[in-house]
Specification:
Structural class: alpha/beta
Order of helices and strands: HHEEHEHEHEHHEHEHEHHEH
Number of strands: 9
Largest sheet: 6 strands, parallel
Low-confidence stretches: 333-339
Number of helices: 12
Radius of gyration: 19 Å
Distance between the termini: 26 Å
Helix content: 40-55%
Shape: globular
Length: about 350
C-alpha cells in the first residue's frame, strides 16, 4: 500500500482550541506540514461540534437541535444552516492556508456508528435503534462525504486527500452500552458483521490509501477497523493493553498504518522523551525492524485538543514534529551507510 504521507509524518486528530479559524489553519499548516488537517473549533458552539459538523454534510436528511441534542427533522432550519456555515468558513481558511499545498491533507467526519448513536429520530430514540434509519443515514453520510471531498479538492487541487472517520462510540455500539432515552436501558448491540459492512461502505468513498478510522476508546475493535478497509488505524497509546498487541501486530503486518496517540490532548505534563519511550516500547513489543517505524507509524495526540489551552496545543504540535524527525533518524543513518 502506497501511503499518501511520507515517512516521519505526524498529525493532529482534528479539533483545536479557540474560535479563530484562520489562526487555527495557520497553526496546523505551520506545525504539521507533512500531514496537515482541517482544523475543527468546537469552542464556537452548537454546530461546530463533531455531531453537528458531520450531520451538516448529510444529503437529503436534515437536523435540528432539541434539548436532548441533535435530531433528524423534515426540513432544514437555523441550526443546520449554522453548522453548514461553520464548515464553509473552515474551508475558506483551509483554502487560504493550503494554497499551493501538494501533499497529504486530512479531513475528519464522524463515522456512521458514532453519528447514529449521536442523532435522534423524531420519536426521541437514537437513529441507532432503527435499522432502516441507520441504513439511510450511512448512505446519506457517504454521499455527503463524496461531495465534501469534491469541494475540498476544488479548493486545494494539489492535495492528496486523506479521510479520518471518528468512531469513539463504536465500542459502545458493539457492546450494547448506548442508553435509551429513559436512561434505564440500552440499545441492542450491533453485531460485528453489520458494523464492519456499514463502516466499509462509508470508508469506500475516500481515496484508496487514505482511509483512516480513529477510536480512542480502551476497547477499540482493532481487527474490525482493519477488516472494514481502513488503511490506517488511529488509537490512544494510553488505552492499549497487552491484549491489543497481537491485533496491532496484524495491522502492521498487513501494511495498515498505525497512528498512535502519545501526547495528552488536554493540559497535562508531557515530554519528548516520554512520548518517544512509549513508541519505542510498543514497537519493540510488536517485533518489527526499527527502520520500518517511520513509515508505518504516525504519532498524534491521544484525541482532539478542543479542551486544551492554545499554548498546550502549540507545544503538542511542536513535540510531534520533533518525534517525526526522530523516527526518521534510523532511515537517514541507513541511507548514509548505503551511499
Amino acid at each position: 500500500m502506497t501511503r499518501p504521507w511520507p515517512p516521519g509524518s505526524v498529525t493532529g486528530i482534528g479539533s483545536v482550541p479557540g474560535t479563530n479559524v484562520d489562526e487555527a489553519a495557520r497553526l496546523v499548516f505551520g506545525e504539521l506540514p507533512e500531514l496537515p488537517h482541517l482544523a475543527e473549533l468546537p469552542a464556537r458552539g452548537v454546530g461546530a461540534d463533531l455531531i453537528g459538523r458531520s450531520a451538516s454534510l448529510l444529503v437529503d436528511l436534515h437536523v435540528e437541535i432539541v434539548p436532548s441534542g441533535w435530531r433528524l427533522t423534515a426540513r432544514p432550519g437555523r441550526d443546520e444552516r449554522r453548522a453548514r456555515d461553520f464548515v464553509s468558513r473552515d474551508l475558506d481558511a483551509l483554502q487560504a492556508q493550503g494554497a499551493g499545498h501538494t501533499g497529504a491533507l486530512k479531513l475528519q467526519v464522524a463515522g456512521p456508528w458514532t453519528l447514529a448513536a449521536g442523532l435522534e429520530i423524531p420519536s426521541g430514540h437514537t437513529v441507532l435503534s432503527d435499522h432502516g434509519a441507520v441504513r439511510d443515514l450511512a448512505e446519506s453520510l457517504a454521499e455527503g462525504l463524496r461531495q465534501h471531498l469534491a469541494e475540498v479538492a476544488s479548493r486545494v487541487p494539489g492535495a492528496v486527500l486523506v479521510v479520518q472517520l471518528d468512531e469513539p462510540t463504536l465500542p459502545a455500539v458493539l457492546g450494547a452500552r448506548v442508553p435509551t432515552p429513559s436512561g434505564f436501558g440500552t440499545v441492542r448491540a450491533v453485531d460485528e458483521a453489520r458494523a464492519r459492512a456499514t463502516l466499509h461502505d462509508v470508508l469506500a468513498v475516500a481515496p484508496e490509501g487514505g482511509r483512516v478510522v480513529h477510536c480512542c476508546a480502551a476497547d477499540v475493535p482493532i481487527p474490525l477497523l482493519r477488516e472494514a478497509g481502513a488503511d490506517a488505524v488511529s488509537v490512544d497509546a494510553t488505552a492499549l493493553t497487552t491484549a491489543h498487541t497481537d491485533a496491532l501486530g496484524e495491522v502492521v503486518e498487513a501494511g495498515t498504518s498505525l497512528w498512535l496517540g502519545v501526547l495528552p490532548a488536554t493540559d497535562a505534563p508531557m515530554s519528548f522523551n516520554g512520548a518517544r519511550t512509549v513508541i519505542q516500547r510498543l514497537w519493540s513489543q510488536l517485533g518489527f525492524p526499527v527502520d520500518e517505524l517511520a513509515a508505518a507509524l504516525v504519532p498524534t495526540p491521544v484525541c482532539g485538543m478542543a479542551g486544551a489551552s492554545p499554548d498546550h496545543a502549540r507545544r503538542v504540535m511542536g513535540l510531534l514534529r520533533d518525534l517525526g524527525r526522530d523516527l526518521l533518524d534510523p532511515l537517514e543513518r541507513l541511507s548514509e551507510r548505503d551511499s
